[in-house]
């Protein structure tokens, strides 16, 4: 007869971790392995799909629970004993894989040596047994214990069990296992996984470095499938609005140069996609990519040339520098295009173009772009002139906005003296002005502030009485609660809910609801 799982559990309940008392007493949900939503059959005590006798089940359990973090020689001996036992049970026409994997719930799988030991046993047994491989697929379908599922997935990945494809697809919806399932699908070598895996990657928000690293690893692996995968990756990149993930996509595509260049070059002529296509081609930094960009710039089929010029700025190609300098000198081109060329020359590190760029310092429409480019080319004396647009009250809104945009751009050059000087300028103005200049300076900041800026903003809240400044600061702090939670805490926003300003109280409440969900509402809208 089949093993009485309820009895087995009750006899050994002290050895099993993560099994709820009610589950043991009830004997129906004891597995903790709730049936997937796609399945509607009722849970029962014989949820394991493969037969094993009571005697053999207990033998497997007793042997398995001996595994722990121990010396290599002893661990190897226990592994061999378990492998021999499991294979002999298979020879009796029974299947020990489910009870073996279930018994690992009594082990500390956080111990790397223990996890790897179980995996070695599963690989050895299932690699030589179709019944063992079938049992792994049953586990993927029916169980929801993350550790046991991960062991099954990693075993399938190693032995390349292609029949697990459909079951692995369902695990792409499991937040704890989706990256593991995706990499397993890729390693099975079935190109049908390309679209579902990319859809899974697009569920990442990409805001933290860990997610971006996982996304890069998965997309990069997918790219090894060749043309079909690269085309799908490019399509995802072109249609994705998530900037953090777009950076990951762009970096993977840039590595797949030979395959991707042809597809991207055609997209230069599609107005919807040509900015991303141009930037990615530029990042490839090959003469072939540069030539495609220059060809597109000269083409009458492309009316708006700005995106192509932006892409050329990423190439680091000396030929691109000469081409842009000649283009800049032409009288017929618009001021907007000239401004873009000036910025691209700075991105190309075209120090030889500094004298030409300086000619535009007296041009009212181009002086801000010229100053920004010269600062980028290490002419830091122009930084004060750029900040003047934030301080002097007779500047137009358009000029102020343009200066803020350039200061944001320059601030983005991390680990750079330029970025350091801009941050110091921002802190000085926040600390020493309580009006027009402070408000304009706050517009430079968004979701990329460091500890020193956060502390400066919090200090400013204690000294300013200006509602506009307070509101702008709370808004910035609210956007940075996740990455700077050691500095920006909930107390700041709780205090803000007592502010005399209705809109500041409302903003603070929204920030609390979004970032500190476990708290009750403090105020009513």
List the helices and strands and how they pair.
Elements: H1 5-11, H2 21-26, H3 54-64, H4 72-91, H5 97-103, H6 112-127, H7 130-142, H8 146-159, H9 165-170, H10 178-188, H11 194-201, H12 209-223, H13 227-239, H14 243-255, H15 257-267, H16 274-284, H17 287-298, H18 306-312, H19 318-328, H20 335-347, H21 354-358, H22 367-376, H23 383-391, H24 397-411, H25 417-432, H26 436-442, H27 451-463, H28 467-479, H29 490-496, H30 502-515
Helix pairs in contact: 3-4, 4-6, 6-7, 6-8, 7-8, 8-10, 10-11, 10-12, 11-12, 12-14, 13-14, 13-15, 14-16, 15-16, 16-17, 16-18, 17-18, 18-20, 19-20, 20-22, 22-24, 23-24, 25-26, 25-27, 27-28, 28-30, 29-30
Structure report:
- By secondary structure, this protein is mainly alpha-helical.
- The chain has a domain at 1-189.
- It contains 30 helices and no strands.
- The protein has helices at 5-11, 21-26, 54-64, 72-91, 97-103, 112-127, 130-142, 146-159, 165-170, 178-188, 194-201, 209-223, 227-239, 243-255, 257-267, 274-284, 287-298, 306-312, 318-328, 335-347, 354-358, 367-376, 383-391, 397-411, 417-432, 436-442, 451-463, 467-479, 490-496, 502-515.
- The longest helix is centred in the N-terminal third of the chain and has 20 residues, at 72-91.
- The radius of gyration is 31 Å and the shape is globular.
- 35% of the residues are buried.
